[in-house]
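Usage

Read records sequentially. Each one opens with the input sequence:
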Amino acid sequence: MRVVIKDSYQQLSLAAAAEVAQAVRIKPNLVLGLATGSSPLGIYQELIRLHRAEGLDFSQVTTFNLDEYVGLAPDHPQSYHAFMHEHLFQHINVSGERTHVPVGISDDFGSYCRSYEQQICDAGGIDLQLLGIGRDGHIGFNEPGSSLGSRTRLKTLTAQTIEDNSRFFDRPDEVPRFAITMGVATILDARRVLLLASGKKKAKAVARSLEGPISSMWTASALQLHADATVFLDRKAARKLKQLEYYHWIQRQAGDICP
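and closes with the structure output:
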């Protein structure tokens, strides 16, 4: 696992966006896994700038989002469909037919989740997956205790996740209690993974996931098993890492390109 530590959220966002942009330029028909929440916003802003200023072309890119709230229609203002449209899709030349966000309304969630997995497979698998991390170490909505072999499925959210996400809703009781999420194994199938974390509230989760034992109680720890995972952190998120000086030393020696 490669760990890149930057001084600020803006710097880590620019560094991660540069890797996404490079991947798109190398493979114009990239299959890109996307995340929502505050962590990837800086990346999306930079990708939009690169598209407008430098012609970064998303016309052949296919996207798959990690998750969606159950019970929210795609046109609900707090749905992840709406989030992606507002913060990325409407600003770049990605085809609507190539964007995939789980639908939170279904008569048969089991069948729908299997079909989402099949769509990823039919697209050739995810080349590059973006991830954030929850305060309890979850990736996607794979809450503590999720199977590390899990696939896309319906998941009950923890009280902490509901509390963390309540800032996006008018009232806490409006936050959905369930979500559709890619499973941990689905995420690990991606050829490359970029995980982003900023702020002191994420420091414990980062330390437990990067340097602790692999455990279903900290689902991000499963990324230790991935052959090509890069973690972008700011100094506050990195502050509890025991190997912090070693990670800085690697960056000084290799200019942030050490595997």
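Summary fields computed downstream for this record:
- The first strand starts at residue 2 and ends at 6.
- The chain has one domain: 2-254.
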